[in-house]
Amino acid sequence: MSESGKRRFVVAGTGTRGTAMWIQPMLERFADDVEPVGLFDINPGRARACNKLTGGNIPVYESFDEMLEKAQPDALVVATTDATHAEYVVKGAAAGLSVYCEKPLCTSLNQVKAIRAARSKSDKPMLVTHNMRYYAAAETMKREIMNGRIGEIKHVIFIETLDRFHGADYFRRWHREIKNSGGLLVQKGSHHFDLVNWMVGSKAKTAVAQGSLSFYGKNGPFRGERCSNCSHAKECFFYADLFAKSGTKTLFNDIEQIDGYYRDRCVFGNEIDIYDTMNVTVQYENGVHLAYSLIAYASYEGMRFMIEGTKGRLEWTAVHGTSWAPGSKERDNATGLEQSGDNVENLVYFDPYHVKTNLTPESRDGSHGGADPMVQQLVYGRIQPEDQLGQKAELEDGIQAVLIALAANKSIELNGQPVTVQTD
Ligand SMILES: NC(=O)c1ccc[n+]([C@@H]2O[C@H](COP(=O)([O-])OP(=O)(O)OC[C@H]3O[C@@H](n4cnc5c(N)ncnc54)[C@H](O)[C@@H]3O)[C@@H](O)[C@H]2O)c1
Asked: Which of 64, 137, 311, 424 has a C-alpha 20 to 30 A away from that of 264?
């Protein structure tokens, strides 16, 4: 703790999320609550670029261990690539820090073991920043379930359709290789599996899954190394000038010679080995069934989350505009989702007599449906929000989300055989 009573934070991973979600707010909204005392990134050029973009002057360290030793932090935020989270979570726990890790908590069963062992030796707060729990509709849904509105949950359907702008972005960079991200079931699905686990209030027992890479990668009609030097730029739907945005240029393009991180790799690259098409069914210990589907090349972006109980059904549907995504062509189109007013969230309750009640909460300001500012308050705020809904995701919650994804990946490898989710 600094003399002014501010908690001292270090951040590992100063990319897009580290910079915008974690470092910028420390310097602005939470400047009276917390003090950033160190940045570490495998590419120190990116940590310096983060300082440049945020106007910060936070010490940049070239070694994580040295940062912990010299900066004497109270707390650590982990916003590195998915497969590297576990290393820092474990080290942060061993150093007696409060640890806040981006989702997915980890990407392998060995990491699950290491994190559980580290957690058992720490008495400090250690959370996974599962922000979907903080969407207004998610909160309403959870409250309705806790109040008994739909009775006992029996069946859940979750469908996520990422469109060809946002969805494609997972194929441009590190997420595209399973060794970095665990694939989209871990990287993206962990959001959704956590949400379902939280609503259902039970642990997953078995998973059965199918998946394929059927649109991106080797399926493309042509390919190049990256958009910025591609001879197919004119004819390619996925061409994107990522570095037209000066922030992305500073954070990636200007320093890419240091680590070879090309932010605009070809979505048809032959090395892509994650799935873009996935279906999973899960059975929970309390008997609930989940049917889950995820694609990354949809014609529009949206989500359907339906929970059927003995007394009725909750349905959260969302249609999302993606004009912010790299290469988006939506903004040129007069019938785009945002312009047409179709960029909406809806939450409804149906009783078994087909009577429908609109439960859609007011929308909130801020990224990810207003969830991110709430998670920042949870991590940085001196004043902590009440947690009547049990929204805080502990490390074990993060593990439970990842375990479903890992079991589903295993089932895909085994051509759809059922796989046990829980592990010691
Ligand atoms: N909760 C959400 O809604 C949300 C949204 C976006 C991203 N995220 C998560 O945030 C994390 C970062 O995503 P991003 O979009 O910022 O990616 P990014 O590529 O912009 O940033 C990742 C950073 O990690 C650094 N890095 C890679 N390996 C490292 C290592 N071994 N040690 C230290 N640094 C390393 C990279 O150099 C890069 O700066 C991911 O885990 C992602 O899932 C969460």
From this structure: 64
